[in-house]
Design a protein that fits this description.
The chain has helices at about 15-25, 50-55, 60-70, 95-110; strands at about 5-10, 30-35, 55-60, 80. It has about 110 residues and is α/β, with parallel strands linked by helices. A four-stranded parallel sheet has the order 2-1-3-4.
Length: about 110
């Protein structure tokens, strides 16, 4: 694969989990990353443009994937992977960084061999 995949990371309000993922991977040369939230109160709210841009989507919880499928059922969506990370962490929390790093890297190795 010559082109870097576009990775979209989604959480509830784009304040802690997805923003942390974007922050820790923003300079990673293997892929492009963007973070959004599902709530209308999100710093950056998910849009059809984000979904068109993404090659792979990570959500934190099962319900978030269901919500995306429901809201955007008229679109052909990319693969959506669930990270299973509860909203128990603050932005850049060390344990959160470790969970995100391990789970995102493991999935990227499986899907893209990167």
């Amino acid at each position: 694969m010559t082109e870097r995949p576009n990775i979209l990371v989604v959480c509830g309000r784009n304040k802690k989990r997805s923003r942390t993922a974007e922050y820790i991977f923003k300079n990673d040369s293997r892929f492009n990353i963007r973070s959004v939230g599902l709530s209308p109160k999100s710093n950056r709210k998910i849009s059809e443009k984000d979904l068109d841009w993404a090659d792979l989507i990570f959500v934190m919880e099962t319900g978030q994937r269901a919500k995306i499928w429901g809201l955007y059922r008229h679109m052909e969506l990319p693969q959506i992977e669930i990270l299973n990370i509860e909203d128990d962490y603050e932005f850049l929390n060390e344990e959160l960084i470790e969970l995100l790093s391990d789970r995102i890297n493991d999935t990227l190795r499986l899907i893209y061999k990167i």
